[in-house]
Amino acid sequence: MGLLTQLVRGLVRGADRVSPFTSKRGPRSHNKGRGAKKLGVLTRNKKFVLVKEMVPEFVVPDLTGFKLRPYVSYRAPEGSEPPMTAKQLFDELVAPRIERDVKDGTFDPNNLEKYGFEPTQEGKLFQLFPKNYVR
Amino acid sequence: MRLSALLSAARLRLPPGYRHSMWPPDSMAARLRNPPGQRRRKVFVEPIAKDDWKVFKGDTVQVLAGKDAGKQGMVTQVVQARNWVVVEGLNTHYRFVNRTAKYSGTYIASEAPLLLSQISLVDPEDRKPTEVEWRYTEEGERVRVSLRSGRILPVPPQPRQDGIVPEQWIGEWDGSRGWGDVVGDTGGQRCPLACTDGPKDTSEEDALAKTYRPSLKTFEEEIMDAMGIVETRRAKKSYWY
User: Fold this and answer.
1) Which of A11, B10, B41, B223 has the most CB atoms at less than 10 Å from its CB?
2) Is the ipTM of this complex over 0.95?
3) Cα of A88 to nearest chain B Cα, Å
């Protein structure tokens, strides 16, 4: 009705040419998708075979006793912590262990894997570079 | 183009000859007085740019002309469209409110708006009227400076657009306390739903609690370890350009 009143007021004449022509507009016979991906393969007999690996599955941990909720109370003050950097992560986790080993005299520069060093990203499920997971 | 632009504008769009009054444009009183299609004689105001506006709610100003000339008061309302400033308790006239058929109404004092030319900002330490200018400090902050003494006039903290005062916000509220407490605390907001946390709000302590433990695993790897998911298959190598 809002569209009609504006047409009646004489501000705009004619159909709306600018808004995208989605599946919500047009006659009943107008069937249009909204860009969902195909989750399988169409075989030569025109039968669709679902590939289970392409179906997204949400892995949700158990949230009992989880205190955070969608919105935050107005009483909480504004502000945020600075984002975590690689240097900060190293300083907090790896540097103390290396210092301790250097003091004990057991530091081996050829065996850095025990501090979390990864020489290659091959063979990992979640590779950091090039990033192969969606966050 | 015109229709889409009209539909997408979320802000209240006022007609070109709208007569601004002391009520906000989306209140019932303003909508009764300004029905759509009404055209009134134009009110001429001195054009002042939005950046040059110097008087804000909560400022102390001195009235220079009118019945209460020479008195100082706090600004309670500002209507930039008409260069109006309403000062608490000054420039008042008396009227009856809440009239019914039998009751003649309560006789109260109501403030009339003053134009910017009848108002002057007041130096914070002198407490005398001064001319004020917008200038920039060494750090690059834009402040109001009194021209006579060079003192900075800090802009008073402005209330939020949605009318919520975080200091008066009550956190978790179970129905055990009576409504009398709520009214007293919030000084005006009657309904406890309007000033307490709802079921989807995180409480203040939970929001500020620091529970992050840094680790070298990614978020997804941590969840897999926590839930005991083992994934030995690896994705085939793919190329993108």
Assistant:
1) B223
2) no
3) 10
